[in-house]
Amino acid sequence: MSLIDDFNESSEAALAPVTIPYGDAYIPQNGYSGGFDNGDSVRLETGYVSISNGFGQTETPIFSMNYVQFQLPALLVDMAVSNNILVMALDTFHILRINVEHSLDIEEIEITRKPSDGKISKIFFDPTGRHLIITTDHGENFYLYEKWRRAKQLSKFKGVTITSIAWNKQATLTDPSTREILIGTKNGLIYETCLEPTDEFFRREEKYFKQVYSIHESTMPITGLYLEQFPVNNRKYFAMATTPTRIYQFVGYVGPTTSNGSRSSPGFGETDDRAEKAMFEAMFAKYDVNPGFQELPGELPYSELHFFSKFHELQQQGVAQTFAWLTGPGIYHGDLVFGSQDVGDSVIDNVQLLQYPATPAEDESGKLITEIPIAVALTEFHFVLLYRDRVRAVCQLNDQIVYEDHIPIGEGERMVGMAVDDIKKTFWIYTTATIYELNIKNEERDVWKLYLEKAQYDTALQYCKDAGQKDKVYTAQAKDYFQQRRYQMSAWYFAESTVPFEEVALKFVEKNERDALRIYLTSKLERFRKKDRTQKTILATWLVELYLSKINELEDMISSVHCTSSNGNGESCANGEQKDAQYYKEQQSDIRDEFHLFLKTYSGILHRPTTYKLISSHGRDEELLDYATLIEDHERVISHWVVEKNWEKALEVLSKQAKPEIFYRFSPVLMENAPYETVNVWMRQPNLNPRQLIPSLLRYDHKKVAEQVTQNQAIRYLSHVVTTLRNTDPAVHNLLLTLYATQPTKDETALLTFLKNEGRQMHYNLDYALRLCSQNGRTQSCVHIYSQMGLYEEAVNLALKYHDLELARINADKPEDDDALRKKLWLNIAKHVVHENKDIKTAMEFLRQSDLLKIEDILPFFPDFVHIDDFKDEICNALEDYNIRIEELKTEMDEATKSADSIRLDIRELKNRFALVNAVEKCYICHFPLLTRQFYIFPCQHAFHADCLIDHVSQWITNALSSSLAHMKQYRQANTFPSVISGVLRIFKNSCPSNLVMQEANQLVRPLRS
What we know:
single chain, alpha+beta, 4-stranded antiparallel β-sheet
């Protein structure tokens, strides 16, 4: 025992027991105290329970017993509690029923009985707190429902002294019945029944009451009985029954039930046919012959059976996990495992027998005495043992007494037992005169320490409440594994603990456990905070070194295995070495994958130059590229593949980049060695500046390309840039023009197509293009360039120089707006045809192709002596055309003469015309008096001021008439009114040759009429 434990014990002894009143309902109403003098209580709280929390404060004890201030009106015979409903049976045949949550309401119910019914021996309360069964020592049984104020006698139970009941967990609060339950009796029989409360006079609460099993020992009472449904099968059940010395297990399937899961009760006058075979009868029938049981011999006339489930809520009850059986030799306890058990199989597992603790005698002899408790209760981690004058708690994990408290017993008072509420997990100790509540709080508080002592580390961690407790578990586990030489396992837990980093690192370094050190460093690195960047960088760099060393070490081992196998002779030896090599390769692959993941995770905190030097010093090119890729140092990756002359890999990396600078840097060497693939990459990058790629294109030599690649890749890329990307950079266009012009082929189709596609928006230098094409003998291109420059005569002459008449004719027609130039060009072509070809027929055919040349135009080019027969028809046709033209001119002259006569006649008639103008007549445009200034009047009697008419007419007439009107205004300003009149008439006459002067006037004044 430590000094802290001594201090705790002495402190507890100095503390007076705390008495907590159990509600106002327990204060006697008659004014006298019904209690006893609380003497000095002795408490023992040792083992794993720590009272001090390390800060001088006292923690609340796990176990504490409080006296309930309630004056019993009579001796207490038995007590039961379920679902916060507490029921007490008094020796006066009265029942007290109290709701713990509403302790002011106390129900006192008197049981009507006969003198021959005997005394109450035991009461049984179901988990829902609704059904109460009272049994007497004479075999009389009574039933009390929660809503009743009077108990009813169970006639079918007559003569049966009940010693235990297995309640059905399937009973719910919505179903008033108990469902099928099992009843154990004093003479070793097990019955099945179902109770359903009813207010009908002729209907009994017990639907049926049928014996389902007998242990064939009439002197052995059924002291414990339990019923559980298998989790995976709702028709499969498990039952356990105990006597003072035996324990029975029953597994089997039950018979069918009604739709609501319970049996229906026959009405008045009906026979209970269903009672012939109870629900659990089939299960127990399998055990009629040679039932299996376990026996613990002893002289104890009583025993108890208890079960524990973590899920104890009424609506969510789970199956029990553990059980405890009070016997003479000790407490027989274990786990319940529900699986695929069948008839005869056992459900209990990991059973143990806890012998009752021996304590020194109270006399001076000091002899150890083993006392058998009168009752036991089961919690998750403890056994609560009740003795005649004390209560003890024994830890299940180490079998140590962790709590002991004395219970004062008054004169004439006797300890009766202990009641447990399995639903609310409350514990009650009662004597014939007093009641105590045993409070259990935070039971699992220090369980982790016990599991830690047992080296059950994972279980200990489950019960740790704070980081300090977990740290102790991790530290102990790490040190334990380290001592066992399980270094890698210890590394994980050292990383979880707060053991100094230097200490742990030195441990692994001294043992030369680099793998464990790597695991430890990785785990610690994961736990650093974001602001601990320096520490993270140092650890990450150290880990890089460890990973690289491990990879090289495995590679050396693989090489050594191969060398050994090449020198070996035996076949079996070679197979073994091959397996070793395969094992090392797999291990190396795993380490490399782990290293890749490490770099991917921590590449952002590693120092780049240092990491590059580390990886390079170990000669790990693949890892170097991996790291460079992760940190997006693509230039280093591409440089590596360029040095290795792996152009495909270099282009693969380059194609994934978005920075144009990387393309400009590596394109020259790539274009020189892998032009086709490089151009493919370029064409997928529209953000590149083609001008920056010109040096790369100049490095390209098409002569060195493989024979199967016929297309010039520089032309291919520049054509894509010009046509698809619509690039207008003159340097790009000039380079493409140069490449087209300097091609070894004589075909100018591609060059002409490029020049024609440029159109009038030429982005190349015309002078440079003309000089380049001339130097390389590109005649058609030169002609096209001359034409683009407007030098049509030079274009035609150049075409004629190379005898390309078709090209000459095309260029001769290009100056569409200059007929004189076109005629001149065509004459040059005709002269060339006549002089060069000296073929009159060809000249005549050429003449027909032009609409500008006549026969007389080309006659001067003919020789002085030529046969007229070759072009007689053309001359005749020309003369006929001249005659037709002369006739047309004569006709036009006659018509002009007639028109002049008509105009003169109209003018003479106009001199004799007059019109009457009233003094109040107004201008139809400005609406002012007409006689105030010069005016015009028409035969339709519309009159206008001269200036108004001229201004208005100028909006609707042609440009020629507008100039005439301007002259008329000058006449009007000079006051030459007759001249103005003649001018107006001339305007209308010139505009309307058909003598439509008046019609024009009407059209001019029509808008004014509206």
